[in-house]
């Protein structure tokens, strides 16, 4: 029999998992619109399995093609650094053999971290992590395939407004993070830096330069909260 | 580079970063500076990508149907409309403007 804590965690896992899986349709369609084929799109969801990084990779390829490969890889990797930070919070309650830890690492993303760390007991944390991970992994990959097939049928990108959908998708990932003055200022400054540098630098590079805004503000903690509350929780 | 090389290399990089968190000592997480930079890095990259996706056309900056589409998306996110509906609404806004412009 399941404990009450596990049942509560599993309910959260379903709610979050189903909502997030729906994003897969937009990723699949945008990826095909950017010039990747259906197989490449599905491999990204199977192997990379991190929404922000996947959207970033296809976004750079959409604007500059395969010649911007290094910038596309760097954008995806930089957006993936937060997963490493999440792993630090999740690792203590995962445990088990190496293969299990490897699978846990692959499933360490925004949503599994958010659901698991919100549970009060270790049992609930484990249930929350594995259920959220499994539901999103299956759901995200199925909806990615569906989106890729739809995108393949639609053909012309701008006629259907798919280029505008990409910006809206990024905004959806950014929105929950704009809760304090510091991230809002970083977001505005990074957008200005990227837009101003676009005519001057090769595609993909302005985004990487804009990331320096985060490093500078992060090091100085300009406009930041007091040190006691500096450790933010994942959204 | 081919698209396949980009897809595989980037996927390995993102997976490796997840594994790093299981290998480095947990005391790292107690330090506020790396945690703060990582959180702000996500914000800066997403925001820069929005700017480039909305205004960029190759290497030039243009104002077109994507700008009102993004404004619509921001309004809907503020009203807590679900992600997938907002993305569809943004695409529809741009498509409508282009169809009648």
Brief description of this entry?
Chain A is an all-alpha fold and 235 residues long. Chain A has 11 helices and no strands. Chain B contains 4 helices and 2 strands; from the N terminus they run ααββαα.
Description:
The complex is a heterodimer of chains A (235) and B (101). Helix content of chain A is 75%, strand content 0%. Chain A has 235 residues and is mostly helical. Chain A has two domains: 4-166, no CATH class; 178-235, no CATH class. In chain A, α1 (4-21) runs antiparallel to α7, α1 runs parallel beside α8 and α2 (23-34) crosses α8. The relative contact order of chain A is 0.16. Chain B has one domain (30-100). With 101 residues, chain B is mainly alpha-helical. The longest helix of chain B is centred in the middle third of the chain and has 24 residues, at 32-55. The model of chain B has no long low-confidence stretch (mean pLDDT 90). The N and C termini of chain B lie far apart (38 Å). In chain B, α3 (66-78) packs antiparallel against α4. Helices cover 75% and strands 4% of the residues of chain B. Chains A and B meet through α2, α3, α4, α5 and α6 of A and α1, α2, β2, α3 and α4 of B.
């Amino acid at each position: 029999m399941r404990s009450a804590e596990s049942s509560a965690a599993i309910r959260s896992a379903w709610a979050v998992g189903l909502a997030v899986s729906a994003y897969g349709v937009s990723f699949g369609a945008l990826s095909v619109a950017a010039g990747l084929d259906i197989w490449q799109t599905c491999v990204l969801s199977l192997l990379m399995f991190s929404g922000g990084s996947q959207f970033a990779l296809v976004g750079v390829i959409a604007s500059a093609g395969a010649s911007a490969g290094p910038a596309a890889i760097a954008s995806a990797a930089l957006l993936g650094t937060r997963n490493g930070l999440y792993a630090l919070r999740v690792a203590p309650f995962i445990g088990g053999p190496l293969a299990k830890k490897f699978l846990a690492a692959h499933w360490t993303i925004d949503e599994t971290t958010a659901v698991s760390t919100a549970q009060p007991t270790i049992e609930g944390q484990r249930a929350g992590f594995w259920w959220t991970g499994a539901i999103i992994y299956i759901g995200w990959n199925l909806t990615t395939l569906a989106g890729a097939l739809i995108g393949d049928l639609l053909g012309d990108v701008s006629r259907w407004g798919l280029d505008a959908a990409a910006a809206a998708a990024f905004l959806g990932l950014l929105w929950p993070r704009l809760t304090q003055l510091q991230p809002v200022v970083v977001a505005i400054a990074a957008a200005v830096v990227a837009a101003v540098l676009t005519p001057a630098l090769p595609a993909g590079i302005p985004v990487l330069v804009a990331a320096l805004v985060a490093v500078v503000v992060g090091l100085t903690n300009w406009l930041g909260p007091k040190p006691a509350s500096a450790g933010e929780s994942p959204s | 580079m081919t698209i396949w090389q980009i897809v595989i290399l980037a996927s390995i990089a993102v997976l490796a970063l997840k594994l790093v968190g299981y290998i480095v000592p947990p005391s790292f997480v107690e330090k506020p500076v790396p945690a703060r930079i990582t959180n702000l890095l996500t914000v800066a990259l997403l925001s820069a990508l929005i700017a480039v996706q909305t205004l960029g056309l190759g290497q030039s900056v243009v104002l077109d149907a994507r700008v009102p589409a993004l404004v619509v998306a921001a309004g809907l996110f503020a009203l807590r409309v679900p992600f997938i509906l907002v993305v569809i609404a943004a695409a529809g806004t741009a498509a409508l403007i282009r169809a009648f412009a």
